[in-house]
Amino acid sequence: MSDDTELLSVRVAELYYEENKTQDEIGALLGITRWKAGRLLAQAREKGIVRIQIVHPRARRLGLERALRERFGLVEAVVVPVADGDDAQSRVAQAAADHLAALRPVPRILGISWGRTLQDVAGHLSDGWASGVRVVQINGGVSLNRRPGTAASTAATIAHKAAGEAILLPSPAILERPETKRAIEADRTVAAVMSLAAQASAYLFSAGVADASSVHVGSGYLTADDVAELVRKGAVGDVVGRYIEADGNIVDPALDERTLGLGLNALRSARTAIFVVAGQAKHDIARAVVTSGLCTVLVTDEATAQALLEENR
Amino acid sequence: MSDDTELLSVRVAELYYEENKTQDEIGALLGITRWKAGRLLAQAREKGIVRIQIVHPRARRLGLERALRERFGLVEAVVVPVADGDDAQSRVAQAAADHLAALRPVPRILGISWGRTLQDVAGHLSDGWASGVRVVQINGGVSLNRRPGTAASTAATIAHKAAGEAILLPSPAILERPETKRAIEADRTVAAVMSLAAQASAYLFSAGVADASSVHVGSGYLTADDVAELVRKGAVGDVVGRYIEADGNIVDPALDERTLGLGLNALRSARTAIFVVAGQAKHDIARAVVTSGLCTVLVTDEATAQALLEENR
DNA sequence: CGTAGGCCTGCTCATATGAGCAGATCCGTA
DNA sequence: TACGGATCTGCTCATATGAGCAGGCCTACG
Q1: Which domain of life, per UniProt (chains A, B) (predicted)?
Q2: H helices present in chain A, as ranges
């Protein structure tokens, strides 16, 4: 486009958007026909001279969402923009809460994992987001936790706000020996919870990073050395307590045998599996989850979405 | 507006502006009527959820321009946005050049002052911006200048690009004694130039700040002490070589008697007097010029425009 | 309990806008 | 110079949109 034409588009755009003139008036003002004004305006939009943005804490990035859905075959994606100074985790948690509340049909049984992210989602749910939902934990995590009750409170909060019931999984996440794990699984109470978890109409989960900051280390289930060893074997993070590689496979089958909770295949075959993830540190595990089909719905921040969509990986 | 409604406006705005859906489609998608969608969209725009900006080096701020015209009774105002890292002076000079080129009727005689700003305007004019314009200097400034020829070259450049003729004022800006000034004025050549200057169909000028950096000091017409004394007496800057107070009056009539060039009243009564000014340092002198009716057209940057529009001054 | 006033909703209708088309104009090539 | 293709221009017509209006609903107050 000639410099001259470009300047004219700028004038048209100014009169149209800042002065609220009609294209007809603009034409009269600038001595051009209204069609030409319209075309210049279209050019201005195309060339990015006119920049339109939605500024709101709960805005979304529909373009990225569409790209993610197409690229990874998701049923739904929710991407929130994060401005400097915003807390990405909190924004994403809010979006996940919104999505959960808008989910139709309303899940009668909701299977959830636990962790900081899920706790945050629970906090952002509004009272009465649903009614009568049974919220069941899909992986263990009680008692060894430094902050006891976090896992339980997440489930309780979600259930409470939906005027429903929380069903906790009374077991550690990782047992020392496979036999112990099997023994606990065989326990009637635990088995009942697991059975309920398997029937859930929707799952809501996040993921952890494989490094020393992992909750498994903090909780005493694994040592920092254990995690370092997992990383050496290719682990990128954990999903409902199970460590996976970049391609989504279990890193260490022996460890997995000692891990109590819903299996990853249950997630893969679930109708609705909502994966909530935020932050730079979780880009790798997020990639592993979406590429290996562990979720049908992804809720994340803009930066993570963009990282997932980058080519050549 | 309730939180709920606000969120809905955000969704509508996203679908409308980012997904290019019609209000009808949006209504269907969100389960509302198209009228409601339209109203929510209007609310989103009103509340500033939708932000539309024109991003272009030659964009203008029409809102500020209107405010300036109304506030100071100007015929026209041109305000350019200046982003971080932009050179305000250069942007404003470009805008002034654009305005001059678009001026109708095309001035047959254009009276100009000189200085860095005007030189910059001359540089931004495009070849053939007019044809056959006689460009006449309205204040003296030759020969004592450290960079001889600047004043002359400004006029020459403007005239050359308009396929016209430059008429220089062969005299210093400020003389040592009033008699000398009168003698020079009486000179046939000088008188002819002054007479032509008085007939100009348009004037284009800038202004200087009253401090030690003034071109008058650099050129040797005044000493730093002289300027300090002028400031003590209330000077805020100079217009075509004449120092004025905040209210637009001449600071020192005796000095003014020694200053050769068009008088300020000629500017005040001119049909078209274009004042070009940019930069934080010139806010005070700019205020003095516009409030005392020295110009009919103001060309400036956004920050200066905003400073001029601030209340209580 | 009744009612006036304010707000919201869904409509009609006039207007603004974009898609698509035919003629005009420009430019390079034979 | 003549020709063919590409681009530009001004139009028609269908559609999208906003203004304005009447009726419904909610609330506060007598």
Answers
A1: Bacteria
A2: 3-13, 23-30, 34-46, 62-72, 88-102, 116-124, 150-161, 178-186, 188-198, 215-218, 224-232, 253-257, 264-268, 283-291, 302-309
Chosen from A8, A12, A16, A53 to mutate, greatest number of chain B CBs within 10 A:
A53
- Partner-chain residue, chosen from B51, B58, B59, that has the shortest CB–CB distance to A53: B51
- For domain B62-311, the CATH architecture is 3-Layer(aba) Sandwich (3.40)
The pLDDT tens digits for B136-190 are: 999 877 544 455 567 788 999 999 999 999 998 888 888 888 999 999 989 998 9
Task: Assign residue B158 a region (left: φ > 0; alpha: ψ between -120 and 50; beta: otherwise).
Answer: alpha
Phi first, then psi: what are they for A96, rounded to 5°?
-65, -40
* pTM of the predicted protein model: 0.81
Q: Domain spanning A3-46: which CATH class is it, in words?
A: mainly alpha
Other C-beta atoms lying within 10 Å of the C-beta of residue A188: 7
Q: What is the reported pLDDT for B312?
A: 55
Give residue for tokens 């601030």: B310
> How many helices (H) and strands (E) in chain B?
15, 11
What is the C-alpha to C-alpha distance for residues B39 and B79, in angstroms, rounded to an integer?
33
Measuring CA to CA, which residue among B285, B280, B269, B275 is closest to residue B304? B280
Q: Where are the domains of chain B?
A: 3-46, 62-311
- pLDDT tens digits for A107-145? 999 999 988 899 999 999 988 888 889 999 998 775 444
Residue B55 (CA) to nucleotide D18 (C1'), in angstroms, measures 27
CA atoms B22, B24, B27, B29: torsion sign: negative
- Residues in chain B with CB shorter than 8 Å from the CB of A48 are 55
pLDDT tens per residue across span B269-310 = 999 999 999 999 999 999 999 999 999 999 999 999 999 999
